[in-house]
Design brief:
By secondary structure, this protein is mainly α. It has helices at residues 6-21, 32-47, 72-78, 81-91.
């Protein structure tokens, strides 16, 4: 990061928030359609365990474990350019891939 530029100040603030809070929110980083595909896949997985997201009466277990989705929708979600930029800022360019 180059000191003195507004970009580096924003980068430093992002890293400081991540260190302080343990997360950063990246609004609108993934297109809504992709998010909906991912959510539907999660809901389908929950249904396989008898949990219907639309029916609170089926939410009887505090935890339902699903495997890590390795689908096209999740790959597209995780590889959005806005997220890659954040990964670079938090972990360093070419250190996370």
């Amino acid at each position: 990061m180059t000191h003195g530029s507004s970009s580096s100040t924003a980068d430093e603030a992002l890293v400081e928030r991540f260190v302080r809070d343990g997360f950063v929110a990246v609004r609108d980083a993934v297109p809504k359609g992709i998010v909906e595909e991912c959510r539907q896949e999660i809901n389908d997985g929950l249904l396989e365990h008898g949990v219907d997201a639309a029916d609170p009466a089926t939410w009887s277990s505090p935890v339902v474990r699903l495997g890590c989705p390795e689908t096209d929708a999740f790959a597209r979600a995780g590889t959005q350019p806005a997220l890659w930029s954040i990964y670079d800022q938090l972990l360093g360019a070419d250190r996370w891939w």
